[in-house]
Amino acid sequence: MKMKSLITLLFACFAIQTMGQETSKGIAFEKEGTLFRQAVQKALSTGKLIFLDCYTSWCGPCKMMANTVFPQETVGNFMNPRYVCIKIDMEKGEGPELAKKLQISAYPTFIIFNSAGQEIGRFLGGCKAEDFIGKVKKASEDNASAEMDKRFADGERDEAFLYSYLNTLSSAYKRDQCNVVAEALLEGKAETFAGDKQLANIFMRHLTNPFCPAFVYTAKHPEALVATIGEMPVQMKLRNVWSGYARNLLTEANGTVTLDNAGMDKWLALMDECGVDKEVKEELRLTTLMTYNEKKQDWNAYMECVTDYGTLFDINDLMLCKWCTPIAKNCKEEAPKKAAIALLQQRVDDLESGRRAPQTKQGNMMLSGNMKKAMLMLIDSMNGKEIKM
Which of 10, 37, 45, 126 is the most buried (most CB within 10 A)? Predict the structure, then answer.
C-alpha cells in the first residue's frame, strides 16, 4: 500500500477511534459492548433513568451528535447525574433485535426509560446542545405514548382516541405500532375506506401489513383508491408493502439470523392470490434470500441468488458493485469469489466494448463515482491484489 493510502487509512482509523471516545466533561456513556439489560440493572441500583442512543455507523447526524454535542461539558453536567447513558449500534450485537423490539426506523433515535427499563419518551434527529437537553427533559416527563399504549392494549377503540394515538406514534416513528392502529381504524372497511379521504391517507401512510383485509382488497381492486389518491402513488404503495414485508421474515438474535420459511411461503402465495406480476414476485423472493444469505454469510447461496437475479433481470452497475462488495470484504471461499469476479469482468468487458452504456444515474440522482473503476478495484481485491487509492 502506498504511503498516501496508509496515511488515509490511519486518519480514518483515528477519526473512528475519536468518535467512539467521550471526554470526561461530556456524557459518560457505559463502555462499548454493554448490554441494555446491564444498563437496566445499573439504573435499578442507582435510581437513575436510562438514556439510550440508537445509532448506526453510517448515520451522519449520529456522528455529529457523538463528535460535537455529547462531549460538551454542559451536556455531561446535565446527563450524568440523572441518567445511565448507553449507546448501541442498531446493526451490531443485540442492536438488530433491540431495533425491532423498540420499532426503530430512523437514526439517531434517543429513548428515555425508567429505571425498570420501561419507555417514557423518545425523540429523533441531531440538534444543538441546548435543544438536546430540552428534548431530553421533555422526553423524560412525557409518558403520553406509554399511557396510550396501555389504553390500546386494554381494548380502547374509540375512533377519536385511535386517531390521536396514531399521531403520537407517527411522531415517534413507531412504524409497526402505527400499522396496528391503522388496521384497527380500517377494520371492517376494506371495501369502503377508499371513499373516505382521511382513511385513504392512513392506508397510504401507515399500513405495512399485506395480510390486512384492506390491503388484500385494494391489491385485487385498486380502482377505488386510485380514484381518491391517483394511479402512481397507489401502485408505489402496493409495491412498497409487498417488498417491506420481507423484513418481517428475518429474525436476528444472539448473532444468529433465521428465515421464516412458512411465512415466506404465505407471503408468496398471497402475491399469487392478488395477481402480483410473476417477475415482481420472483425479484422480491430473490432479494429476500440474498439479504438472508448475506447476513448468514452463506456466500455460495448468496452468489447463486445474485446469478439467478442476473439471469432474469438487468443488474445495473451500481447494484452489481453493491452486491459484489460483501464478497470482496467478507468472503474467504474461492467459488463465490470466482462467480463475483466473472459477473464483474463481464460487465467491464461490455462497458469497454460499447455493448453496454455506463450507468450515470440512479433514479433521479447523478452518480458521482466511476462504476467501471469500482468494478476493477473489486476484482483486484478478490484476486488478492494491492488496492491503490
Answer: 126
Annotate the chain with three-state secondary structure.
Answer: CCHHHHHHHHHHHHHHHHHCCCCCCCCCECCCCCCHHHHHHHHHHHCCEEEEEEECCCCHHHHHHHHHHCCCHHHHHHHCCCEEEEEEECCCCCHHHHHHHHCCCCCCEEEEECCCCCEEEEEECCCCHHHHHHHHHHHHHCCHHHHHHHHHHCCCCCHHHHHHHHHHHHHCCCHHHHHHHHHHHHCCCCCCHHHCHHHHHHHHHHCCCCCCHHHHHHHHCCHHHHHHHCHHHHHHHHHHHHHHHHHHHEEEECCEEEECHHHHHHHHHHHHHCCCCHHHHHHHHHHHHHHHHHHHCCHHHHHHHHHHHHHHCCCCHHHHHHHHHHHHHHCCCHHHHHHHHHHHHHHHHHHHHCCCCCCCEECCEECCCCHHHHHHHHHHHHCCCCCCC
Q: Enter the pTM of the model.
A: 0.78
Q: What pLDDT is recorded for position 58? A: 94
Q: What is the mean pLDDT of residues 89-116?
A: 92
Q: What is the tally of structural domains in the chain?
A: 2
Domain boundary residue, one of 89, 120, 142: 142
Instruction: State the residue range of the domain holding 364.
Output: 312-389
Q: Is residue 222 part of a domain?
A: no
Residue-wise pLDDT for 312-332, tens only, equals: 999 999 999 999 999 999 999
Which of 87, 115, 142 is the last residue before a domain boundary? 142
Q: Is the model more confident about 172 or about 350?
A: 350
Tell me the CATH number at 55: 3.40.30.10
Q: Which three cell numbers stand for residue 2?
A: 502506498
pLDDT > 90 fraction of the chain, expressed in percent and rounded? 81
